[in-house]
Every structure is written in C-alpha cells, then in structure tokens.
Design brief:
5 strands, 15% strand, five-stranded antiparallel β-sheet, Alpha-Beta Plaits, single chain, elongated
Length: 186
C-alpha cells in the first residue's frame, strides 16, 4: 500500500515531467554534501529544477504522464535536471558545473521531444548559442538582403538618370564578358 508521501512525490514528479521540455539524468554518486549543495545552487540559478529521484516512483510518474521514454533515464541512483522553456540551458548549466567542479558528477542521458539523447548529444546541445542569439542571427540573415537592396536603391537615387543607364549597361556588359571568359575556361 503506497504511503501518502509516495503518492505526493509521484504527483509532483508527474507534473514536472508533463511541464518539462527537456530532462537530463545525471550520476551524482561520489559527491559530498557541499558539492551537492553547489550543484543545486548552480541549477537553481539557471532557473531549472534538480530532483534526486527514486527510480520506481519516477517510473510510475512517467507512466502516468504518458512519457514512457523517460524510463530510459533511470539506471542506478539518478538526479534529474528539468528544463521548462529553454532546452539548451539545462545542458549548459550541467556542463558548466562539470567543468568547474571537476568531481564525480556526470550527465548520463537526456530526453528531448520524445527522443533519448546520449552524453555526446547533450554536450553538443550545451555548445549551442543561447536562444536570443540564434533568433538574432536568423533575423539578421532575413534582413540582410532587404538592407542591401535599400542601400543599392539609395545609391541609385544619388546618380543622375542618364549616367545611371550608361553605367548600368557598361557594368552589365562587363559581367557578360566575365561570365563568357569563365565558361571558356571551364
């Protein structure tokens, strides 16, 4: 017969599993109490949750949340890092802790969008730039052609129309000659 505490723990884990975008399993064996406190602090500062789980309770919570792939995270004593918004932040926080602490802590596996990630996948994920940087890069790539067109149009407005037509034809002829030479050489 399950105790009330176990029922509450399963419910809490189920809610976290349902909300999380990414979950990372880590091996924490060999960490001292102070190192575990530093780890919890580092994870909390990144806006994430760290939970040391009992495997049976976590398995039951994953089944209730209808996320059976989460069961693959369990092997031996397990700490789970839950990330809710940014999928890169949990991997980055764990990698930074591993680099700075140089202790027994190690990422084992992760689950992202129903797929199980290996430790190498998690390391690759941790090296991605933050979401804001990626969005800025995409926006810049989308805006660059429009900015170039605006620059060309503004430079065209500064040139008198007769000269513009003459220069354009001269440039076009030069481009055609260059392309013809290029094709002859190939």
């Amino acid at each position: 017969m399950p105790t009330q505490k176990k029922i509450e723990t399963v419910q809490e884990l189920r809610e976290r599993i349902e909300r999380c975008a990414i979950a990372i399993a880590a091996d924490y064996r060999g960490l001292t109490a102070s190192e575990m406190g530093q780890l919890r602090r580092a994870i909390r500062e990144a806006g994430l949750d760290l939970k040391v789980v009992k495997n049976r309770l976590f398995l039951r919570a994953a089944q209730e949340a209808e996320r059976p792939e989460m069961a693959e995270l369990l092997e031996g004593p397990t700490a789970i890092i839950f990330g809710y918004d940014d999928v890169v932040a949990p991997a980055r926080a764990a990698m930074e802790y591993m680099r700075s602490a140089r202790n027994a802590f190690a990422m084992r596996k992760g689950v992202l969008d129903g797929q199980v990630l290996s430790p190498a996948d998690l390391q690759d994920l941790a090296t991605l730039p933050p979401r804001e940087v990626l969005v800025a890069r995409i926006a810049g790539a989308l805006l660059a052609p429009a900015a170039r067109l605006a620059g060309l149009l503004s430079s065209l407005l500064a040139v008198p129309p007769g000269r513009l037509l003459n220069d354009s034809l001269f440039t076009f002829c030069g481009l055609l000659e260059a392309r013809a030479k290029q094709l002859e050489g190939a």
